[in-house]
Write a structure and sequence with these properties.
The chain is mainly alpha-helical and about 350 residues long. It contains 14 helices and five strands. The longest helix is centred in the last third of the chain and has 27 residues. It binds adenosine-5'-diphosphate and tryptophan (TRP). Tryptophan binds next to strand 1 and helix 7.
């Protein structure tokens, strides 16, 4: 019996910072697990990053760095289609067609746009749209184009992106309502992998690890820097001998994500019994992280060389993605009367 074709799962990664341990736990690992069950497509959303990044070298660097990180972390480019959004120009043609069927009011209600206006209001600015570019405003339409162009079945994203996926479904609905006699776009389904895993990694100061809080442990810093960062994780002044609550310790919460289950259980017991200090816990955490990251760092460094195979891998991914995209776009063009 022939197996049913697998569903397509698609997600975009905005290259706006150096990947950190939180991204590994909350985004990369769950995405690699999903790739076992779906035909996965992961792309670097470089044109989305352009809404905020104004330094061309930095955008170039982050785009390669994010791709190199995912591959170093185990993404198999033979089985997963990985590409740069900018290398699939069909995206931008579909984005225009979709903007012609998207309600402006929908964009007015988008979280990111509303948050930018609220910030202006708080700052007492008379023009609430001050400093807001059209890229930020149109962001949800471009994201809908990314998704609908690839005929994606499911879109795994964090909670903050859920509204955008709902918008994509909405916009597909409008298109189908107007042009559905000619061709119907597939309505994508939102999945929230984080909610299932429920893992939010704390950063150095105990708040969620995030580049916006400058409290991250980047994945590929030098060994000496990694050691320094681990030592900076906030701890209280409980003496070595005193019993400790592992679940209230940021260092332990991070340790638990990267140590084996047996080792995490053993360390938990020692902390609870008393006799294990924060210094020793951090030494163990550093060792576990360093052991995990050293081979990944070697692969990452190799891929980040200017003439590495990275750009060719991404270009090959883009070719595969474009083959899918052309079919959808050609159907859309015919359906609207442009062919
Ligand atoms: P940042 O907060 O550093 O700006 P992003 O918002 O770019 O990170 O997040 C990219 C992905 O990584 C998202 O899927 C997000 O849920 C995940 N992620 C980021 N930080 C964490 C964290 N501290 N714990 C778990 N997942 C995280
Ligand atoms: N907007 C997403 C983010 O900021 C990135 C993204 C762009 C995306 N296009 C997408 C995610 C399509 C899922 C599907 O993280």
């Amino acid at each position: 019996m022939q197996e049913a074709p697998r569903k397509v799962s698609l997600t975009g990664i905005k290259p706006t910072g150096e990947p950190h341990l939180g991204n590994l736990v909350g985004a990369i690992r769950p995405a690699l697990e999903l790739a076992e069950r779906y035909d996965a497509m992961y792309f670097i959303a470089d044109y989305h990053a352009l809404t905020t990044i104004r330094d061309p070298d930095l955008l170039r660097h982050y785009s390669r760095s994010v791709a190199a990180t995912w591959i170093a972390a185990g993404l198999d480019t033979d089985r997963v289609t990985m590409y740069r959004q900018s290398e699939v120009p069909e995206t931008f043609e579909l984005a225009w067609a979709l903007s012609c069927v998207s309600a402006k009011g929908l964009m007015n209600r988008a979280h990111a746009y509303k948050a930018a206006r609220d910030k202006n209001a708080e700052a007492g600015k008379a023009d609430l749209d001050s400093g807001i570019n059209m890229g930020l405003y149109n962001y949800p339409v471009l994201m809908a184009a990314d998704i609908l162009l690839m005929d994606a079945d499911v879109v795994p994203v964090g909670k903050d992106q859920a509204q955008h996926v709902e918008y994509a479904a909405d916009i597909a609905g409008s298109f189908n309502h107007l042009f559905g006699r000619g061709y119907k776009l597939k309505i994508p389904e939102l999945v929230l992998p984080e909610a299932q895993a429920g893992k939010t990694l704390p950063g150095l100061d105990g708040r969620k690890m995030s580049k916006s809080y400058a409290n991250t442990i980047p994945l590929f810093v030098k060994e000496s820097q990694l050691k320094k960062l681990v030592r900076r994780i906030a701890t209280d002044s409980t003496p070595v001998e005193a019993p400790k609550d592992p679940d209230a310790s940021h260092a332990f919460q991070i340790f638990e994500q990267f140590a084996t289950e047996a080792e995490a259980a053993a360390v938990r017991k020692r902390l609870e019994a008393g006799g294990m200090g924060w210094g020793e816990l951090k030494d163990r955490l550093f060792e576990v992280l360093n052991e995990l990251l050293t081979p990944l760092r070697a692969r990452y460094d190799e891929l980040m060389e200017p003439d590495s195979e990275l750009d060719a891998l991404l270009a090959a991914g883009a070719e595969r993605a474009r083959a899918r995209a052309r079919v959808v776009l050609s159907n859309v063009r015919t359906a609207v009367g442009i062919d």
